[in-house]
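Record 1 of the preview.
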Amino acid sequence: MDVYKEIGLRIREVRQRHGDSQTDLATRLNMSRATISRYEDGSVKIGLMSLQKIADHYGRSLAYLLGRETEEDRRAAQLRRVASETERLLQEVREAENTVPVPLIGTLPGRYSDFQDKEEVEKFYPIGTAAMHPEGAYCLQVMDDSMRDQRIVEGNIVFVDKTREPKEGDFVIAGKEEEAVIRVLREDDDGLYLEAGNVAFRKVRIEKADIIGVVVENRSMYE
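->
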């Protein structure tokens, strides 16, 4: 049998043993499904680097896929897989240590007096601790199209820091006549004002509104 067909049979065998489809393996190794299929049927020659990626992914030795594995090769491959999985778990722990859960406490627009001292929270979203002060953090869900031209659209989640000092150009949460809205803080010769991202909404002078937080991140509902 052709040597590449033999290698392909071993790739297919170890893939199926782990319950992966060709698409699963291709996704994990950043390859196309067609490439994995051609490797498995031996219709193309697989390079050593690609073969090593597959071997490492499944905790097998390169020698195994080449049909020349010894017991020493097998043990070394298993150790590499354990080390790789350990590093992955450690990375997840490091990422978790550097994030904070931020409560979703209301919608925009919405009555800001209703959520400023909200005690019961049903949902949290994680964000990096470097992005905002945890003690002054909360999330709101956008429910209108007043900021659509700024890519803040209905359904998006905005992360708000109520301890941050607002500056011109910031996206801010402002309370106007008991209603909380999201706007851009602007300044002209007459002073500061709030600007929407939709020409259908009028600008509002800052003396007619209270800024109650600065938006530090806008996240799509699909992320």
